[in-house]
Amino acid sequence: MQDDIENMEQDNKEEVKLGEDELYAWLELRLHPLLIKAMHRLGFNEPTPIQKACIPAGAHQGKDVIGAAETGSGKTLAFGLPILQRLLEERDKTTRLHVEDEKVAEGSSTGGPLRALILTPTRELAKQVCDHLKEAAKFLGIHVVPIVGGLSMEKQERLLKKKPEIVVGTPGRLWELMSSGNQHLVELHSLSFFVLDEADRMIERGHFKEVQSIIEMLPLSNSSDEQTVKATSSCETVANLQIKKRQTFVFSATLALSANFRKKLKRGLSTSKASTADDLSSIEELSKQAGMKPNAEIVDLTNASILPEKLEESFIECSDDDKDANLYYILSVHGQGRTIVFCTSISALRHISSLLRTLGINVLTNHAQMQQRARMKAVDRFREGENSVLVATDGFARGMDFDNVRTVIHYQLPHSSDVYIHRSGRTARKSLTGCSIALISPADKAKFYSLCKSFSKENLQQFPVDQAYMPAIMNRLSLARQIDKISSKSSKENANKSWLQRNAESMGLILEASDSEEERVRGHKQRKATSAQLQKLQQDLNELLQHPLQPKTFSRRYLAGLVFHHCFKSN
């Protein structure tokens, strides 16, 4: 067995040596060879600023960490790598002790007690964090599972029976399983790491009660070595004693901590105090409730604008009726890479998604009224397509991380600057370029001016629209709107008939035919004429869609940074 360990360590050293020059930044952080190997395989040649700032404190100094950075900055690995690093160090130490004592039984079972519990505000974010950690832990033999609502409870209980070391979940489902006595989630004597990801959003979504209940179940983390020894049975190992010192990570896209709280952490003073669910109105209170230890590391990399550095912001002034035309123009002429279209209302989302599908654009949707399985399927399909288009409401705007989202379109303006930040932050992530385009109607001008003023961006650039495309776009749009109107009317009529029929059958009633023979004949002729009209409109539209929108050439270099600059006119 000793030979196997030595061979594995040698392989790891050789793997790291191969990329020594380009992985120098990771080597500086003194990460385990297996983690450096994982970063190399994932194409992460150097850590992001938030990772550089958090990994030394979390992985080597064992400090609690409060971290904040812009969206897409790599916060997941900023807490994930320290957790994996410390688990690996502990495992290596335990393995060496066992080898020396020759007391290890071959074929020992995988898994073990819960070591890290990570809370996220949404199911989609939990899945995303879980996927990132699985990729980082691919060569480690450390198991990570998601525990979220909307999925089968039985399936998730089966996952927990395998005793994964790391669980990522939403407060609601986690507390549901904890309160029902799930063994893996309530036996927390070995819990070493507790993470609150997107903590500001956790507060907004009203998870106070569940978060507080979960925190109250955690073992005390600030007891001294002497107290820990007294509370521990004689058969426990030194490694188990170290586990008693839980490490807490609180991460967010924004950070608002009082000067007094920062001073206490800096001076090593206790921050704990009795809190209630009503007190959990800030990241500061949530950190206190979670048992943030003295001398915790505060890493605040947010800046004045909070928006990604390489984000190009612009707008298009148009009437409400022309928003559809400009949206189709952007997608058709500048539709490179993934695009997210944001709406504030579900009715607007349904309108444009239906219209775009009629125009031959394969659109995905994500909103709160969808079933969870459908939402997660849409997220997966969006990730898979290089030029996917997703139409979403603001519940989707925070936390989710996608590669190569080139464009964010604000079909409807958000209600606050905070939501605008998180919408726009879906693009220009990981130091890539991207653009955010707002469609501004006359009714939006005052709100948009206020939004620009809050970011000191009154001279925002106007997105260039080549009006030569508009006649062809309006022809297509006119046909698509007619098709949508007829199809929608027909669908509503059929839905009403189905509803009446279902209710009558459930009550054991027989519906009487209220129409006369003449009315039925007239109705049949009308439906036939409508069907023919719909077929003709669809044929005309299909014929237009078979040809390029405009044969003339048009510069597609806007997304690389060539734009027209116009001063935004304030009211």
Walk me through the structure.
InterPro entries: DEAD/DEAH_box_helicase_dom, DEAD_box_RNA_helicase, Helicase_ATP-bd, Helicase_C-like, P-loop_NTPase, RNA-helicase_DEAD-box_CS, RNA_helicase_DEAD_Q_motif. It comes from Triticum turgidum subsp. durum. It holds the Pfam family Helicase_C. GO terms for molecular function: ATP binding; hydrolase activity; nucleic acid binding; RNA helicase activity. Keywords: ATP-binding, Helicase, Hydrolase, Nucleotide-binding. The protein is α/β, with parallel strands linked by helices and 571 residues long. It folds into 2 domains: 245 residues, P-loop containing nucleotide triphosphate hydrolases (Rossmann fold), CATH 3.40.50; 166 residues, P-loop containing nucleotide triphosphate hydrolases (Rossmann fold, 3-Layer(aba) Sandwich). It is 47% helix and 12% strand. The chain has 22 helices and 14 strands. The strands form 2 sheets. The chain has a 7-stranded parallel β-sheet with strand order 3-4-2-5-6-1-7, sandwiched between helices. α18 links the parallel β10 and β11. The longest helix has 37 residues. The N terminus and C terminus are likely disordered.
